[in-house]
C-alpha cells in the first residue's frame, strides 16, 4: 500500500492514507499486546481532567484512545474486544476522513464531486438490488428513512399540509399500518418523529389459521382498511417485511402491492431478506419487493463494513416534495454521507459484493440441512429455503405424535401443566443457546423469546458472518455441538417430573417451581423455625442451605449445585443443574434431605452451646459458693483465723473431701468431680447420643460417582451376581491353599458358603502306604 500511496499526486491524500494506516495498525496491534506490556500502558481516569496547556503529538493521542477503547483488557472477555475489520473496513473509515478533507474544497469542485459520489452510489445500489429508476437517501439511523418516507406520503396525500399544517390531519386522520411482527418500537418512533398520536398506528395481526404465524394476515388487513375508509380516515403507509426481525419470514408482498394500489397506499418494505435481491436466484416473494414504493437496505452488516450508513431507495417524480420531506438536500455535507459506501463498493466490486451475500446464504442453507438430520430440533423457517435466517428450537418428540413441549406423553394435559412444560423447554433452550454461543463464538447466535414458539436460537449470517468471519467449518462445528448437548437436554427433561414427585413425597423438603432454571429442579429445606407464609429472607435457612451446598459439592458428583433466592421470594434454595446420564433421583433427594437435617441439628447444637455453657457456669458458681459456706460451718470460725487455724489443724486435722464441678458438654449437665478424685480416673458421664444416621449406604463399583444408577436389572439378577461373585472368591482361595488341600476337600461333602470346615480326625493310613520313616510331629497349640 505504501508504493501505491506514492503514486497519488495530492500530498494531503497520500498523507491521510498513510496516517490512517498507521493509526489503525496501532489500535489493532494493541489487541495482541503481551502481559509485560500491560504495565506500560497509560492509566485513564473516569473523571475528565483539564485540557493540557501544551499540545500533544498524534502518537500520544492515539495511545490515549487505545487505552479508552480497551481499558483493563485482561479483565474483559474476548468477545468484548473489537473485531478485525480488514482492508475493506479501512476504506469505509477512510471515507469519513476524506469527507472532512473534501468539505474544504471550493464550492464548485465540492458540488461536482458530491454529485458524482451520490449519483454513482445510487446507480450501483439500484442495479445490485434490482430497483430500477430509484433514488437513494443515506441515513445513520435505520428507521430514519422510513420516517422521511411517511413525511413524503403526508405531503403527497395532503396537498394543503404545507399551508394548513396539522389542521388537515385533524379532519382526516392518517393511518400507518404495521405488522405485528415488526421490529419493537418502530411505531412509537414514527409517531414521535411525525408528531402523530398513537391512534394513527394500526397493528395488523399475523396469520392464525393458514400460512406462517409471522406473516401479515392480508384478508384481515383489507378489512381494517375498509373500516378506516368508512370512518373517514386516510390509509397512508403500509410497512411490510421481507424477513421479519425475529425469524426472517417474508410477507406476501405481491398481494400487498395489489391491495395498496387499490386504495392508494404507499408500500414500504424492509428486512434482511432484501439482500438476496443481489443473487442470481431470488424467491418470488422477495422479488415482488422490487415493485414497492420504497425499501430500506443495511449494506453495512451485510458486507461487514463499519460506520456505513443505511440506504432507503424510493421512487417519486416530484423533487420539490422530496426536498420538503428531507429525502434530498442541497447541502454538500448531506451528500457526503454516501462517501464511505462509495469507497467500499469500489474496493469490493460487484463480484465481491455478491459473493459476500451469497456466502451468508450458503451458511444458512448448510445449517438447515444439518439440523434436519438432528432429532429433537425443530426449524421454524423450514418452508423458506431461500431465507438467510435459521431459527431452531429444542423440542421433545415422541413416535407417532407431533412435536410437543412436554417430557411425559399424556392423553390430555391441563393448561397449567402445559404452561409449566413450556417454561421448562424455554429454560432448556435458553441454556442451549448460551452454551452454543460460548462453544462456537464465530456463529453469532442470538437467543430470543417468541410469543407463540417460546425461546429459540437464531442464526443470521447476513448480519454477523462478514464481521465475525463465519465459515462452513463453523457451521459444521455448531451442528456437532448441538448433537453433543441433546443427551443432556433429554435426560434432564425426563428426570424433572421424577424429581418433583420424590421431593413432594419427602418430609422436610419443598419443591420450588422455577420456570427459568434449566436444571433438574429447585428444592428448599424447611427447618423447624421456617415461616412458610413469609416471603422475606430467612437468615437461619440461608445458613442451613449454605452448609448443605458445601456438603453436596464435596460429594464430587457429576451434578452441579448452587444456592440462590427462590423464584417468588427471597428465601434460599438449592438449584440442581443439568444431568448428563441416568441419575438415581431417589438417592439424590434422600441425600439432600438427610444432609440438610444433619446440618440443621449441628447448627442448632452450636447455637445452643453458648447458652448451655453460660448457664452451666452460673450453676457451678452457685454450687461452689454453697460448698464454701458448708465447709465454713463444718470447720468453724476459729479455723479461718490464719495463726489460730494452723494450730487447730495441727492438733486436730480436718478430713475434708475435695469437691469440684465438671461440665459435660455432651449432656449439658453439671456433675461432681468426687469420682475423679476417688478413683483417679475421669468419669465418662452420660453416654453421648448417637450421631444422626446418614444416607443409606449404597454399594458402588470402583470409580462410580454418587447418584448414578449402577444396575437396571431386577433384584434377582443382582442377587445372582452377588452369589457368583462369592463363588469366584472361594475358587481363588481353594487354588491358593495348594493341591493337597484341594484334594482333601474334594472328597468331603459340599458345604454352603460361610460354613466352617470340620477338623480331620481320621488316623493315618497303614505304614505300608507311607514310604520311608514317618515321624509324627505334634501340631503346635497356636494352630489347633
From TrEMBL:
Residues 499-604 form the PDXDC1-like third domain. One of its GO terms (molecular function) is carboxy-lyase activity. Its cofactor is pyridoxal 5'-phosphate. Residues 387-493 form the PDXDC1/PDXD2 second domain. It comes from the Eukaryota. Residues 28-50, 683-784 are annotated as: Disordered. Keywords: Decarboxylase, Lyase, Pyridoxal phosphate. Gene3D superfamilies: 3.90.1150.170, Type I PLP-dependent aspartate aminotransferase-like (Major domain) (3.40.640.10). Residues 28-44 have a biased composition (Basic and acidic residues). One of its GO terms (biological process) is carboxylic acid metabolic process. Belongs to the group II decarboxylase family. This is Pyridoxal-dependent decarboxylase domain-containing protein 1. It comes from Oryctolagus cuniculus (Rabbit). The gene is PDXDC1.
